[in-house]
């Protein structure tokens, strides 16, 4: 763990709803983290989504929400929830990415729980996600939160994500 990472505490991190002013910074976090893990836009990963630069618009519909994490005035991560098209009662945990600056601080767990609580409040019965084995830290977290492997649902467009998981809410 680096000196900088040790100094970051939850008190220095702020979780808030995504705004249009955050679009460029959030898209850059997703691009940077994707590149770090070798998740290239020429494959079916989130980094290739056509809506990546306007995510605040994507999370406007009812039953959708996206939160960003701010550190020193900069967006350094986030995660969202949206209905899974064609699957009544099922939402999807989407675009959970964290800059290396804040990894290891428990923010993924904190934000995941916030997303799960939101999904329950919205009346969803299940939360679905797609990921890839390259994201080992994320897989470990999902298992700790109670997600289990399942078949792929819906048409998310993330065909390179070979792992599908679901959580009963």
From TrEMBL:
CDD domains: NAT_SF
PANTHER family: GNAT FAMILY N-ACETYLTRANSFERASE, LD18367P
Keyword presence, Lipoprotein: no
Keyword annotations: Transferase
Domain N-acetyltransferase stretches: 13-169
Taxonomy, superkingdom: Bacteria
Protein's recorded name: N-acetyltransferase domain-containing protein
A Pfam cross-reference name: Acetyltransf_1
């Amino acid at each position: 763990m680096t000196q900088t990472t040790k100094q970051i505490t939850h008190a220095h991190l702020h979780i808030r709803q995504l705004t249009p002013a955050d679009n460029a910074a959030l898209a850059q976090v997703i691009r940077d983290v994707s590149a770090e893990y070798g998740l290239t836009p020429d494959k079916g990963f989130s980094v290739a989504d056509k809506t990546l630069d306007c995510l605040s618009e994507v999370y406007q519909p009812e039953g959708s929400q996206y939160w960003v994490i701010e550190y020193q005035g900069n967006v350094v991560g986030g995660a969202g929830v949206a209905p899974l098209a064609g699957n009544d009662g099922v939402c999807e945990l989407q675009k959970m990415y964290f800059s290396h600056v804040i990894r290891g601080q428990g923010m993924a767990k904190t934000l995941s729980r916030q997303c799960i609580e939101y999904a329950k409040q919205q009346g969803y019965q299940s939360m679905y996600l797609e990921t890839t084995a390259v994201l080992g830290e994320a897989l470990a977290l999902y298992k700790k939160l109670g997600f289990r492997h399942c078949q792929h649902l819906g048409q998310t467009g993330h065909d390179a994500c070979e792992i599908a998981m679901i959580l009963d809410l």
